Amino acid sequence: MTTYHSTRSRNESLTSKQAILEGIAQDGGLFVRDDVAAGAPSLEQLLAGTYQDRARLVLGHLLDDFTAEEISTCVEAAYGANFDSKLVTPVTPCGQDWTLELWHGPTSAFKDVALQMLPQLMRVSRAGDGRRVMIVTATSGDTGKAALEGFADVEGTGVTVFYPHGKVSDIQRLQMATQRGANVAVCAIEGNFDDAQSEVKRIFADEALRARLAERNVVLSSANSINVGRLVPQVTYYFDAYAQLAAAGTLKPGDAIDFCVPTGNFGDVLAGYCAKRMGLPVRHLVVASNANNVLTAFLTTGVYDRRRDLVKTISPSMDILVSSNLERALYWIDGGNAERTLERMKALQTEGVYRVDAELLAKLQETFLASFSNDDETKDAIRRAWEDEGRLIDPHTAVAWRAAESHFDPMVPMVVLSTASPYKFCRDVYEAIWGEIPGADAFAYMDALCDNTGVEPPKALAKLRTKPVRWDDCTEIADIPQYVVNAARRIF
Ligand SMILES: *Cc1c(COP(=O)(O)O)cnc(C)c1O
Predict the structure, then answer these.
(1) How far apart are CA 409 and CA 414, in angstroms?
(2) Nearest to 207 by CA among 464, 21, 26, 437
(3) Does residue 247 sit in helix, strand or coil?
(4) Number of helical (H) and strand (E) elements in the chain, helices listed first
(5) Torsion sign (Cα): 313, 315, 317, 321
């Protein structure tokens, strides 16, 4: 059995079940395993069968302390009628590229692919453990709702979500504020996503808080993309996209493929890198950013510098300056050097900046390309996708579609990861194509978008109009631990 350890040390050695329950390592690092290639299923095996078959193979390989039967029940529960496409993540043409539609799950964002699975993995991992689990998650908009939906009324678990006040779309806010379930809590915070994420990361190491929760037999865990149980399910759709293009005759097994990924916390694109290490013939992964283009600068110069203000954009799920999962990519590409990873992350925390040397930068650049779009460029891409290609795309997808244009190569198919339904951001999408409707609310924009395009909104989003608001809490960053304790008291 393969074990997981921190990106910052080798002190701990955990099974994947333990890593999923712990979420983050004691030393603040992320759980990794060193060799994902050894014993991996062959490309031929991974291209045969359905999405669910591929999920079983990928999960079975990366989470090898789960039995085949455990994996099968998880896959069955996670990828069924809760997705409104039989293919789960269909690939469709969009101009000279392909889009991988990752938003057919219950909350209309790509987070569902992992967060419909994570509660299943946790259920199996916890079997026989009498403790209750409180999932605490910071969200830039989409993770929160997907975590709430995934964990709502799952026995023995609670879920508390913090989102930055005023910095998510109206539809995103309503999705969270109307969340059903007896075991959920939703709270806005005064601050931005980075503030929320760093406080949530900190409370995992907060001994006083742990002790208070332990009194009620509660342990903390995370549904953020730093969790191994989030990362692993996302690897599947890279293989699946390749399989769909192979089935369509667009490529032959073994041919190279490029992916372009709208990136925030680096979880999605890291899953693509993991697929590459497992043997998928990925040539380039294009890291697409919005105006918060720290990653574009890093992948161009080797300097990661978060000492700047976070900009609010029309692609809010990517409004992030500290891309946590980059730590795993650095660890792997730097040959598994935990000491150097620790040094870099310490520098990032204390000085706000770190540098990698020319050699490591060159290694990163062999796979990772990067570019960014500001809001005007993003809106222009939304408009062109509709007017020229008849495709309605959300602002995150538009950021990636535009980045894909600048890295296009006619010899290698380019797959753009489409991460949200355009209806999650109907106001900005409508305005990008037809301009403002004075006085209109989110639902008026939803109707207008549907009237003008004939594209129906996802049912769950249309229903938000009449759902009662359950949550309007708002708190200071410093009060996050107390909010979690109160939620645990109420839920358990
Ligand atoms: C979360 C999210 C992203 C960014 O994904 P990361 O894994 O954080 O890089 C992009 N688009 C949408 C719609 C998202 O919800």
Answers:
(1) 8
(2) 26
(3) helix
(4) 22, 15
(5) negative
Q: How far apart are the first and last CA of the chain?
A: 35
Maximum Cα–Cα distance for the chain, whole Å? Answer: 61
Query: Cα separation of 274 and 238, whole Å?
Result: 10
Give the rounded distance of the alpha carbon of 149 from its chain centre: 15
CA distance 133 to 8: 25
390 contacts: CB under 8 Å, gap ≥ 6: none
**Rounded-to-integer distance, Cα 276 and Cα 481, Å:** 39
Q: Which of 222, 260, 265 to mutate to test the pocket of ligand 1 (most atoms within 8 A of CB)?
A: 265
Amino acid at 476: E
Specify the residue with its C-alpha closest to ligand 1, atom 15.
Answer: 142
Tokens of 16: 């994947």
250: number of Cβ within 10 Å: 16
**Ligand 1 within 6 A of 268 CB?**
yes
pTM above 0.85, yes or no: yes
- DSSP lists the bridge partners of residue 32 as 5
- At 130, the pLDDT band (50, 70, 90 cuts) reads confident
Our mutation pick for probing the ligand 1 site, out of 102, 113, 142, counting the most ligand atoms within 8 A of Cβ, is 142
Cα 410 to chain centroid, rounded:
29
CA of residue 263 to ligand 1 center, whole Å: 6
Cα of 109 vs centre of ligand 1, distance in Å, is 8
d(Cα 492, Cα 485) in Å, to the nearest integer? 10
Beta bridge partners of 188: 163, 474
Query: pLDDT per residue over 254-311, tens digit each?
Result: 999 999 999 999 999 999 999 999 999 999 999 999 999 999 999 999 999 999 999 9
Alpha-carbon distance of 106 to 460, in angstroms, equals 7
Q: Which residues does residue 164 pair with via DSSP β-bridges, in sequence order? A: 189
The one-letter code for the residue type at 191 is G
State the distance from the centre of ligand 1 to the C-alpha of 283, rounded, in angstroms.
Answer: 21
User: Would you tell me how many other CB atoms lie within 10 Å of the CB of residue 154?
Assistant: 17
Q: What six digits make up the tokens of 171? A: 């539809």
**Helix crossing, 326-333 with 338-350: angle to 10°?**
140
Q: Which helix (H) or strand (E) holds 416?
A: strand 414-418
